[in-house]
Design a protein that fits this description.
A two-stranded antiparallel ribbon has the order 1-2. The longest helix is centred in the last third of the chain and has 30 residues. It has 4 helices and 2 strands, in the order ββαααα. The protein is mainly alpha-helical and 122 residues long. The relative contact order is 0.09.
Amino acid sequence: MPRKRTVQPEPSESFTLDDGTIVEVRNHNTREIGRGLDKKFNADELDWQVLLGLFDDLQSQSQFRQERAKTALESNHALARFLLDNDYEMDQRTATRHGKSIRIKFAQSMEIYNNNKAQNKD
């Protein structure tokens, strides 16, 4: 007997941009179901947790925390070393992959921040 087709959960929020692009907002309760997607979701969540911690460190009053975050964000290798030194349980290869992903998210976030800052200034 064949198994039933997987029914994807509805997104928690959905809207259409001016150019016709459909944007779906999902969280841990409404994430898509499929092979490997749970690991991808968990890896993405870990990246955002680390990145939010680094943002907190950059905005901290503590010079030590600011320097530690700046050093970690210098390169993929430095960020991988940061993950391994701070007791994240992963091998070197996984840490390097997370480091690259986190730096990409950091660059995108800073670009959005700078664009918003420039728009608000005008």
